[in-house]
Structures are given as C-alpha cells and as structure tokens.
Specification:
Number of domains: 2
InterPro entries: Glyco_hydro_19, Glyco_hydro_19_cat, Lysozyme-like_dom_sf
Protein name: Glycoside hydrolase family 19 catalytic domain-containing protein
Strand content: under 5%
Largest sheet: none
GO molecular function, one term: chitinase activity
CATH class of the largest domain: Mainly Alpha
Keywords: Chitin-binding, Disulfide bond, Plant defense, Signal
Bound molecules: 2-acetamido-2-deoxy-beta-D-glucopyranose
Radius of gyration: 17 Å
C-alpha cells in the first residue's frame, strides 16, 4: 500500500515536470511532443510507465525473494552503491573538466555517470553539476530533472533519444533494421545501457528492467499486454547503438 502511494505521488510529480521537459528538449511546449505528452492518452501513460520502469529498476534495492517481488522495491537508492572509480574522463578536460575532489559516479532517478554527462545535464538544467555532482543526490527535483533530461536527449546527434525511440518519432534506418533495432521499450534500453544489457539474448539484467516496465503498465491501469512482442519489449537480439562506449549500466 505504501508503495502504491509512493508511485502515485511520483506520477503526479512527473506529470508536473512534463511541461518543463519540453523546454529542456528545446521544443516548443505548444507542440505537445514532450515527455508524457506525445500521442494519445494510452501512449502518454505508456511512456510514463517506460520511464518509471527504468527508474524503478535502476534505483531498486529489491531482490528475488523480497516481499511483493523484486519489482516492488524501486526508488530505494539515490546513488551508485559501490563506485569503483570517479568517472572522470580526461578526453573532455576542455569542455567538461573534472573538479578536483568531485566524483561523477551514478546518481539520480535514472543514474547519470561521467563528467561529460554531468556537464551536459548541468548545462541543460542550468545548475553547476560539474562542481556539485552531489546536488543530484541531495535534491529529488534535480534527480528527476536529470533523469528526464537523459530520457529526452540523444547520446549522439544522429541517434534517437529514448523518448523518440519509445513514442515512435524515430524511424529506423536500413542499418537499424539489419541490426534488429525497432522502436519500443527494448530500444530505450539499448540507448540508455547499450551492450551492458542488449544483444546478449534473454539475460537477467535486461529482463529485470523489462519486468519493471510491465509492472508499471499494470500499476497505471494500461496493462502489461501493451508491453509489446518480445522483439519490441526487449533488446535481446538488438545490436547496441554505440558499441564500446562508456555508457555505464550500473
Ligand atoms: C493510441 O495510439 C496508438 C499508437 O500510437 C494506437 O495503436 C492506438 O490504437 C491508439 N489508441 C486509441 C484509443 O486511439
Ligand atoms: C532543487 O533543485 C531545484 C531545481 O534546480 C531548485 O529549484 C530547488 O531550489 C532545489 N532545492 C534545494 C533545496 O536546493
Ligand atoms: C551501416 O553499417 C555499416 C557497417 O557497420 C557502416 O559501415 C555504415 O556506415 C552504416 N551506414 C549508416 C548510414 O549508418
């Protein structure tokens, strides 16, 4: 019960933020093509469920035998538990220099990693995250704004954002089709985590994220039947958009 209240509160919060995100994405908010405002009502709810699926799975402290099952334990952690490094990439020392002492480990509702991601998110949100990456961990609004920024922003210019891949704005190229990348929830995992979970068949790390999406589809009244066929719901057979990049998958 408590868990459901938390989800309802979270949903209200996310919907309140929806207007702000269209600006983050550089779109005119009147076009209604932002986060949770694209397509018909069903599609809008599905996108919220997809976003929450990522949030729930990435912040979960649940495990297989926990009460309510592993999907009932999202929004537990607000930062990476055991960072093995500070995630400072010197390649970006001119654009997004690491602040001495700062650590850019995973933080937020959909965790961001690395100085260049903190730098880019900070620019978009107009907050100095390079000097203060800890803000994302301390401020829940920022934790969700950074997550929505990540959802709305392509990793590379020629590629779709998770948002575009999910709502169908993205039209796969011939290469995408050859490499089994199709619009849907699976493509959002591909964009956000790449080879960390995709293109390896039905691995647990991927299925865990997909099952959170289905859980939230049920919780929001859409129903898991809208999750899509296996090739749309998962990225089991998809080749990663960006093989060998440093997109951490936590
Ligand atoms: C909502 O849009 C989806 C595709 O974006 C479509 O499949 C579905 O039929 C639409 N539902 C209604 C009620 O119009
Ligand atoms: C949290 O972040 C938001 C968005 O940047 C900001 O408006 C708010 O003042 C911050 N809250 C605190 C307590 O710093
Ligand atoms: C398609 O994939 C091939 C092989 O990976 C690559 O050489 C080519 O540049 C790609 N074409 C486009 C348009 O991305």
């Amino acid at each position: 019960m408590e868990k459901q209240n938390a989800v309802v509160l979270l949903l209200l919060f996310v919907l309140l933020l929806a207007d702000a995100t269209t600006t983050v994405n550089g779109e005119d908010s009147n076009t209604k093509k932002g986060f949770g405002t694209t397509g018909n009502k069903t599609m809008q709810m599905m996108e919220i469920a997809a976003f929450l699926g990522h949030v729930g799975s990435k912040t979960s402290c649940g495990y297989g035998v926990a009460t309510g099952g592993p999907t009932a334990w999202g929004l537990c952690y607000n930062h990476e538990m055991s960072p093995s490094q500070t995630y400072c990439d010197d390649y970006y020392k001119l654009t997004y220099p690491c602040t001495p002492g700062a650590e850019y480990y995973g933080r937020g509702a959909i965790p961001i990693y690395w100085n260049y991601n903190y730098g880019a998110a900070g620019e978009a949100l107009k907050v100095n995250l390079l000097d203060h990456p800890e803000y994302i961990e301390q401020n829940a609004t920022l934790a969700f704004q950074a997550a929505i920024w990540k959802w709305m922003t392509p990793v590379k210019k020629a590629q779709p954002s998770a948002h575009d891949a999910f709502v169908g704005n993205w039209k796969p190229t011939k290469n995408d089709t050859i490499e089994h990348r199709v619009p849907g929830f699976g493509a959002t995992m591909n964009i956000l985590y790449g080879e960390g979970v995709c293109g390896q068949g039905d691995v647990d790390s991927m299925n865990n994220i997909a099952s959170h999406f289905l859980y939230y589809l049920d919780l929001l009244g859409v129903g898991r039947g809208k999750g899509g066929t296996h090739d749309v719901l998962t990225c089991a057979e998809q080749r990663p958009f960006n093989p060998n990049t440093k997109i951490a998958s936590s």
